[in-house]
Amino acid sequence: DGGITQSPKYLFRKEGQNVTLSCEQNLNHDAMYWYRQDPGQGLRLIYYSQIVNDFQKGDIAEGYSVSREKKESFPLTVTSAQKNPTAFYLCASSRLLGQATGELFFGEGSRLTVL
Amino acid sequence: GEDVEQSLFLSVREGDSSVINCTYTDSSSTYLYWYKQEPGAGLQLLTYIFSNMDMKQDQRLTVLLNKKDKHLSLRIADTQTGDSAIYFCAETEDQTGANNLFFGTGTRLTVIP
């Protein structure tokens, strides 16, 4: 079945450690996105990419890094520079607007807790 | 920047209609979306509407768009307990390329049996 797979679903990290969240899609979508969700704040865009080897900062990119070496994969690294990393992280993908309605397909999310 | 606002909570009785409201500030919106999120899961698209439309109906769902007032609503007819979830409205002004959505805070719908 086509879809987006995020792993791990739950992750615990000690302060000062970097962690990488995985996101893989087999929908053949060009665009991929990372959002952060906090209670009562909705979703905020961290990074997005619309083509391999290219990505753009979203609204809250500080303390995060990404790579897009393959069309199917868009991993997110939460670095020790991110001051408040405990959150629910959502990865999404879409076809490009202009080719389609731009509907985002979401993974099931990864919950990161910093101890 | 763009601002999308929703009330945080809504409770309805099973069988009644639910109306979830959303206001936005971006006058250049091209598409507006409603997403549903069940506990501990990702978001699923429920429906979308083009900015040049006033209404869209899809089975139990009715979307109304008032562009003048920048107001979007989602009506769920005959609400069921399985409709309990968080509902997000989102808008974009993009027309090509990646779709950078601006999401509201989400409305938690509780359906009382």
Describe the 3D structure.
- The complex is a heterodimer of chains A (115) and B (113).
- Chain A is built from no helices and 11 strands.
- Chain A is mainly β and 115 residues long.
- Chain A starts with a strand and ends with a strand.
- In chain A, the strands form 2 sheets. In chain A, strands 2, 4, 5, 6, 9, 10 and 11 form a 7-stranded mixed sheet that branches. A 4-stranded antiparallel sheet of chain A has the order 1-3-8-7, with no helix packed on it.
- Chain B contains no helices and 11 strands.
- The mean pLDDT of chain B is 92.
- With 113 residues, chain B is mainly beta.
- In chain B, a hairpin with a 5-residue loop joins β4 and β5.
- The radius of gyration of chain B is 14 Å and the shape is globular.
- Classes of the chains: A mainly beta (115), B mainly beta (113).
- Chains A and B meet through β4, β5, β9 and β10 of A and β5 of B.
Low-confidence stretches of chain A: none
Average residue pLDDT of chain A: 93
Strand content of chain A: over 45%
Which pair of chains forms the biggest interface, and how many residues does each contribute?
A-B, 33 and 27 residues
Number of helices of chain B: 0
Q: What sequence of helices (H) and strands (E) makes up the elements of chain B? A: EEEEEEEEEEE
